[in-house]
Amino acid sequence: MTTSDDLAKQLEAFVGYLLCYDRVDRMNVAAELDLSVSQFKTLFILARELEPIPQRTLAESLGLSDAATGRAVDTLVGRGMVHRQADQSDRRVKRVSLAEAGRAAIEELERDQRARLRDFVSSLDSADASRLHEALRPIVARPDLRAHLEERTS
């Protein structure tokens, strides 16, 4: 019988492998785009948002100071990847959102990530692929995961 600790260790190894499988390529893309880690994270955070968010909220999500976040946003605005505008009800508040160029960069990264995951799945023999599919089916059917998947595909 598998203990929770054994399963957690196996899951950690598997997820860690999948993340590392993708991480080098993501860092290469960030380097090609000449983005700092903070700028890269900014694009991913803004990609999840449906509406412009206060720059202060972005700073909290990044775990950065307002000044450091402002510098990252300044660069991304200058490169046409992010929009920044004054809040209509409080002009002191700056709202930020992903511009089309930023969205295109994120979509390209996500396409590449899906391709790498397809490559990994293709490397499995059919029996392992079937077992993985059957094991994941009830897990991804959970309401919290289903909502996350729907959010990412909408």
UniProtKB/TrEMBL annotation:
An annotated GO BP: response to stress
Keyword list, A-Z: DNA-binding
Top-rank taxon, per record: Bacteria
SUPFAM superfamilies (alphabetical): Winged helix' DNA-binding domain
Domain HTH marR-type: 4-141
One Gene Ontology MF term: DNA binding
Pfam families given in the database record: MarR (PF01047)
Name of the protein in question: DNA-binding MarR family transcriptional regulator
Organism annotation: Herbihabitans rhizosphaerae
Taxonomic path: Bacteria, Bacillati, Actinomycetota, Actinomycetes, Pseudonocardiales
